[in-house]
């Protein structure tokens, strides 16, 4: 770790860095040590302040009246940012919960909140456990080698969240493809086209699908999350088309893709740490802490951004009204001041105050569901797992926002 801050800041504005763990973490460690509040001015992005310490990220998330999600909730290129704002002004565009601030955010969040509360999770657990068994049985039936990401880890949480929404199974593959394209705009394997306009066409496809779904659920409401969204009221009125369609998009996409990243990255960590795998198999009571460690280790959501509502400071560094900060969750989850031996994968780590679900008013709506899905799949798999090893080189996606393993070739024996 050489303390080359200039080089380190460039990593945050380089999607390929997130596909290279060694390079990424070396740079983030330099920033934490030498410049925890660092100015990043790297084309094709607008400048921002990189926040790499856990405590600073928490402080900013807490002060949601000072640090706003609008107008820049995530890092995108200046060109894509301009196009997204122009579309919203024209009445078409993406405005999900992560784009909103209170009080509107709180009202919109409440529409889906009941579907992710403990009672709803208990009711859903039977279905999740059934699906976990289905996919572990599939690993057994495949026998020998498989790509764990594309054959198992993608499909299990996809089926859970789209079943919760009430979508027909024949549409699941379409939702998966659109999600890959939306989150994979920086990855050569996933992206649709090279221009912001081509990539925005993904959103049009999402909106066309969910527009028809909204009309159907308003005409004939059913007992599913899609109906709750379609008929959700804010201040006594139906949500706008933009807010309604965006709600579907964030639930359908983030609701499975991030869990896929945590499941596949968690299995990879167990393969690379056979002592921890054996420890977890010998003591299934460690599963809750193991799940939290997998979520810390993989950090599927790499960052969110906030914009200062007034002049302020972070760690003594002046930040002007209108300037944006980049909350580097990946860095916060390896902060030496918070985690003992942060680069050790420890299935019994406790406490584990990771930032992977965010913090404060924007804490992930689906956190309980993600935890339950991970608990179910590993609780089903590990007692039946006789052997496992890599059968090729794992591959990470290029991204600056959401991502993880694209491919995890494994060779395993499952009873």
Automatic annotation (TrEMBL):
Is Hydrolase a UniProt keyword of this protein? no
Report whether Transcription regulation shows up as a keyword of the record. no
Q: Gene3D superfamilies recorded for this chain?
A: Cytochrome P450
Q: Which GO terms describe its molecular function?
A: cholest-4-en-3-one 26-monooxygenase activity; heme binding; iron ion binding; steroid hydroxylase activity
The Gene Ontology biological process terms listed for this entry are:
cholesterol catabolic process
Which pathway does this polypeptide act in? Answer: Steroid metabolism; cholesterol degradation
Cofactors required = heme
Q: Which InterPro entries match?
A: Cyt_P450, Cyt_P450_B, Cyt_P450_CS, Cyt_P450_sf
Q: Which SUPFAM superfamilies match?
A: Cytochrome P450 (SSF48264)
The UniProt keyword set, sorted, is: Cholesterol metabolism, Heme, Iron, Lipid degradation, Lipid metabolism, Metal-binding, Monooxygenase, Oxidoreductase, Steroid metabolism, Sterol metabolism
PROSITE patterns attached here?
A: CYTOCHROME_P450
Q: Which family does it belong to?
A: Belongs to the cytochrome P450 family.
What name goes with this protein? Steroid C26-monooxygenase
Organism for this UniProt entry? Mycolicibacterium chubuense (strain NBB4) (Mycobacterium chubuense)
Lineage start: Bacteria, Bacillati, Actinomycetota, Actinomycetes, Mycobacteriales
């Amino acid at each position: 770790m050489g303390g080359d801050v200039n080089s380190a800041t460039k990593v945050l504005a380089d999607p390929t860095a997130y596909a290279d763990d060694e390079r990424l973490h070396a740079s983030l460690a330099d920033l934490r040590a030498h410049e925890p509040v660092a100015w990043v001015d790297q084309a094709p992005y607008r400048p921002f302040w990189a926040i790499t310490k856990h405590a600073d990220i928490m402080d900013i998330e807490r002060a949601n009246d000072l640090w706003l999600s609008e107008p820049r909730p995530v890092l995108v290129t200046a060109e894509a940012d301009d196009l997204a704002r122009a579309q919203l002004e024209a009445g078409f565009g993406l405005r999900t919960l992560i784009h909103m601030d209170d009080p509107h955010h709180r009202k919109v969040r409440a529409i889906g909140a009941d579907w992710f509360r403990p009672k709803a999770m208990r009711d859903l657990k039977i279905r999740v456990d059934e699906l976990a068994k289905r996919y572990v049985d599939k690993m057994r039936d495949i026998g020998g080698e498989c790509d764990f990401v594309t054959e198992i880890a993608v499909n299990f949480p996809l089926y859970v969240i789209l079943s919760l929404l009430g979508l027909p199974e024949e549409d699941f593959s379409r939702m998966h493809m659109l999600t890959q394209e939306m989150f994979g705009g920086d990855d050569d394997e996933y992206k649709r086209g090279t221009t912001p306009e081509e990539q925005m066409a993904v959103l049009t496809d999402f909106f066309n699908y969910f527009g028809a779904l909204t009309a159907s659920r308003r005409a004939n409401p059913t007992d599913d999350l899609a109906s709750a969204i379609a008929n959700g009221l804010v201040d006594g009125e139906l949500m706008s088309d933009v807010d309604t369609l965006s709600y579907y998009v964030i639930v359908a996409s983030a609701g499975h893709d991030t869990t896929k990243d945590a499941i596949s990255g968690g299995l990879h960590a167990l393969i690379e740490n056979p002592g921890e795998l054996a420890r977890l198999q010998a003591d299934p009571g460690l599963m809750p802490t193991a799940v939290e460690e997998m979520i810390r280790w993989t950090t599927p959501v790499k960052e969110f951004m906030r914009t200062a509502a007034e002049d302020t400071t972070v760690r003594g560094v002046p930040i002007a009204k209108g300037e944006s900060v980049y909350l580097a969750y990946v860095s916060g989850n390896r902060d030496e001041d918070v985690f003992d031996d942060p680069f050790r994968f420890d299935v019994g780590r406790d406490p584990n105050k990771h930032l992977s679900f965010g913090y404060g008013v924007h804490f992930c709506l689906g956190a309980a569901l993600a935890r339950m899905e991970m608990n179910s799949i590993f609780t089903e798999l590990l007692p039946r797992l006789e052997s496992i090893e890599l059968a090729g080189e794992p591959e990470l996606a290029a991204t600056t926002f959401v991502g993880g393993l694209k491919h995890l070739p494994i060779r395993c024996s499952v009873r």
